[in-house]
Amino acid sequence: MKNENFEIKNRNESLCTKNRKAKRLEEKSEITITIVSGGKKSPEEKIMYNQSNDISVLGARIKANIFLPIDTLLKIDFTLKNPHQMMISTLGKVKWIKSLFANESHEAAMEFVHTPSDVTQQLAIYISYKQNIKDLNPV
Fold this sequence. Notes:
The chain has two helices and six strands. It is of the alpha+beta class and 139 residues long. The protein has a six-stranded antiparallel barrel with strand order 1-2-3-6-5-4. The two termini are 27 Å apart. The model is unreliable at 1-18 (pLDDT under 50).
């Protein structure tokens, strides 16, 4: 039974990975989120300090301390963990959100929008670099 659950989980993860439009880098990073617009249900707090769980050239999975309604427009700022410590700043929209820990913490998917091509290129290079290092040094 345990092996069956493991196989099902791996099969589901493989299907999710195949459906992805871009490779994701699993890496936790400190981020600053500024709410640009969110409608009537927008949180009162406009700037939050949170963390991203993974990132791709198209978006990020973030952990937030407040609920962010779907389609909320956000500005996200974070620093790439490379020797140059490059700061990335882009806009994104909340695509889905789920509550964790009795509504005290939330996980959300953010799709980048209107991202300048140089930022997309910097992210692509960074993600490729980090994945190559990970492939060469599996843990």
